[in-house]
Amino acid sequence: MGKTFSEIDESLRDFVERQHVFFVATAPSSVDGHVNCSPKGLDSLRILGPSTVIYLDYTGSGAETIAHVRENGRIVIMFCAFEDAPKIVRFHGKGKAIEPGDAEFDALLGHFTPGPGVRSIIRIEVDRISDSCGFGVPHLRFEDDRTQLPLWTEKKGEGLDSYRRQKNAASIDGLPALRLPDSETT
After folding, report:
1. Which of 16, 22, 134, 139 could be 86's S-S partner, Cβ–Cβ 3.0 to 4.6 Å?
2. Would you say residue 92 lies in a domain?
3. What sign does the dihedral 95-99-101-107 (CA atoms) show?
4. What is the DSSP string of the chain?
5. What is the pLDDT of residue 182?
6. In this structure, is the dihedral angle defined by the CA atoms of residues 26, 121, 9 and 146, taken in order, positive or negative?
7. For the domain that residue 95 is a member of, what is the CATH number?
8. Is residue 185's pLDDT more than 60?
9. Confidence of residue 22 (pLDDT cuts 50, 70, 90)
10. pLDDT of residue 115
11. Is the dihedral of CA 51, 57, 63, 66 positive or negative?
12. pLDDT tens profile 27-59
């Protein structure tokens, strides 16, 4: 039977830090809008305290998470144990997209050794923490991180700004997403 927790304690932190992938889910306020669930990997997540989590949001083909947290803040992160004992942990909370140029961006970025293509940092103030059994989750073995995203970003070079303008300015439902300055250097 699942449990809820009042904070991210050392045991939960240890579990989370051993996972190689996590999943982020958000939804727009509109009942007609599309729910989004995105897998995340690389070394992109940090626990800053008993109820604060941040992760690097790299350039991708869409910007649903940014759009949804801008609109309503609702977000959940899920971690599944694919190795070792079966377990699932969820962090529900309020998210905020912090972009280059925002006052806290550089300080938060300092918690990482980021690769190229970071377009924002998502900060989550966690208000519900729960676990469940994970009995139905298969065993999978981690081999290594994929290199395609950093290589693709480096290859895009100056074209990354144009790509973001085309693919990341709005969600698939038309909600505003990434704020794009006239000249972008990240």
Report:
1. 134
2. yes
3. positive
4. --EEESS--HHHHHHHHH-S-EEEEE--SSTTSPPEEEEE-SS-EEEEETTEEEEEEE--S--HHHHHHHHT-EEEEEEE-SSSS--EEEEEEEEEEE-TTSTTHHHHHTTS---TTEEEEEEEEEEEEEEE--TTSPP--------HHHHHHHHHTTHHHHHHHHHSSB-TTS-B-S---SS---
5. 63
6. positive
7. 2.30.110.10
8. no
9. very high
10. 84
11. positive
12. 999 999 999 999 999 999 999 999 999 999 999
Domain range for 24 is 3-167
- Does some domain include residue 104? yes
Residue 55 belongs to some domain of the structure: yes
In this predicted model, what pLDDT tens digit does every residue of 118-166 receive, in sequence order?
999 999 999 999 999 999 999 999 999 999 999 999 999 989 999 999 9
Contact 91, 130 (CB under 8 A): no
Q: Is the pLDDT of residue 90 over 70?
A: yes
Residue 119 lies in a domain: yes
Q: Helices 148-156 and 159-167, interaxial angle, to 10°?
A: 110
User: Closest Cα partner for 81 from 130, 37, 1, 15?
Assistant: 15
**Is 72 a residue whose pLDDT tops 70?**
yes
**Domain count along the chain:** 1
